[in-house]
Structures are given as C-alpha cells and as structure tokens.
Amino acid sequence: MAEKAQSANVAGTGLDLSPIRALIEERSGIHFDETLQPHFAGQIREHMAARKMAQTIDLLRVLRDSSLEYEELLERLLSYQSWFLRHPSAFTALEKKVLREMHQKKFWETPRSLRIWSAGCGGGEEPYSIAMTICDSLDFAGAWNIHILATDISRSALQQAERGIFPPGALGALHARQKESHFIRVGDQYLVRPQIRNMVSFAQMNLAENVYMGRFDVVFCIDVLNYFDEAHRAALVHRFHEYLESGGYLFVGKQEPIVKAGGKFEVSTYEDCILYQKPMAPKPNKAAHIGAGRNAKAEREKKA
C-alpha cells in the first residue's frame, strides 16, 4: 500500500496524482501504469506550472468543471513525437508478406478492395505511411478500392493529420524517391500528395468505447495498448479479432504482448516483426454438401 502511495506522488514534489489518474481512467478508459509514470508526472507538473497551480486538488476541480480543460490535458498526456515509417519492421512485413498475400487472395475479386484501420493514428504519420507502402508495393494499386480508416481520441492530432503538412524531420526515414513521389515541398514543410491523402479518412474515436467500425483486412494498433489496463486491452484485442476478415492481420508494438488476450490469433514472425493473424475460415466440404443433398433427396422420395 505504501509502495502504491509513493508511486502516485510526483518525484520531489509530494503531489498525489492518483485522483487525476483515476479521473482519466474513469472518463476515457486510459490507464497510466508504472511504466508511464515518469511521463505522466512530468506532463502534469508542466501543465500545473503553466496554469500557476500549486495543488493537485486545484487541477482536479478544473478538470471536473471544464471538458475543454480535460481535453487539453489528455492531449498533452497522449502527445508524442512520431515520423513516417516509424516502425520499419512492421512496414517491411506489410509490404513483403501481408500485401502479397492480399494480392493473391483478392486477385479475382471484382472490385478488388482493401480496408485497413490505423487505431490510434496520432498526427497521421502511420496511416499515410500505410498508404505510401501500398502505392509503392501493390501492383496496379490504382485499380483497387483502398480505404484506410485512421482514428484517434485527440481532436488536435486529427486536425494536424487532416492538414497533411509535416516538417522535414518527420520524413527523415524516407528515401529521396519516396519524398518526391508522395510529397509536395511547400516552403520548409512537406505536403502529402492528393493520391495518398485521398486513401485515408480520419475520425475521432475512443478505443475504450465499443463502436463497430466494419470489417478490415489489416489493423494497425502500435504503441497504443500500453495505455489500457489488462481488462480494456483484452476487450480491445477481442474486438480487433471480430472486426478482421478471415486471414486478416493485426499489428501491435514489440513491447505490447497480447498473450492473454490474443489466444484466438495465429502468431508468426516476419524478420523481427510479430504478426497476429485471424485464422482462415474453413472451406465448405463439397463432398459433405453433395452427400447431404443426396440424403435429403432420398428422404423426400421415401416420404412420397
């Protein structure tokens, strides 16, 4: 008990942050565990200093009275620096394995469609990276009906993503050809080209809420699950499994094992990327179907 009380205090200040953590978990389902405590404490301290608040109770009162203040704090807590192709092993697996499988699986479909969900998309780097990977690797991508749904709880992050304008640092992992193909230089910034922008749609969503988003071939939820407690994490992974098409893939972060919650997935690796695949639905047994039809016909003749 004493250990929990100690960890709930901001180091060196004696401020008890447990009521703020409890409020955020109650309202948004987001759980800041001990591994996130330094980040949480630092952001709370800066937020309070900017508002000239000395006591946690003052911040708690403001958060309860103003939804705008609550959203601003939550966005501060969830903000992080990102860049294109931030997780190279995941995008290599997407290009070299997953998209090739999807191409073979859907080649004879009319129209050929591909739906991907970027859950917790932040400022848009991840969904745009997905779109770029598809354009660079999928044969005749323009002939496909491709839709990437990108959702996040942060309104300001989504506004930034929809603008599609990024600083040079966000493009640091891209090759010159990728920059030329997928961006337009605007002053000292880079604007996502319409071909990539039009593949992505953005929507505000709290992943702790059970909202049906349709069926998907691939779900990206990287570096997001750690913000939920075990119960919410298990529920979210279960929903991902339900929303995925047969044979679809789930991408999560390397430090986000879903052993307890991911029992329904088949686990494999591609290079150093862990892949969670929804098992293929069993194909109907044609012989059994024919046999059942013959039995039904014999039964009708017998009754006649």
Count the beta strands. 10
Supply the number of helical segments: 12
Going by CATH, the homologous superfamily of the largest domain would be Vaccinia Virus protein VP39
Strand content: 15-25%
**How many domains in all?**
2
Please tell me what the overall shape is. Answer: globular
CATH topology-level name of the largest domain:
Rossmann fold
Helical residues, percent: 40-55%
What CATH first level of the largest domain would be assigned?
Answer: Alpha Beta
How many whole angstroms does the radius of gyration measure? 24 Å
Low-confidence sequence ranges = 1-13
- In round numbers, the mean pLDDT is 87
Name the helix and strand elements from N-terminus to C-terminus, one letter apiece: HHHHHHEHEHEHEEHEEHEEEH
Q: Any guess at the CATH architecture of the largest domain?
A: 3-Layer(aba) Sandwich
Widest sheet: strand order? 6-2-1-7-8-10-9
Largest sheet: 7 strands, mixed
Oligomer: single chain
Structural class: alpha/beta
Taking the alpha carbons of the first and last residues, their distance comes to 78 Å
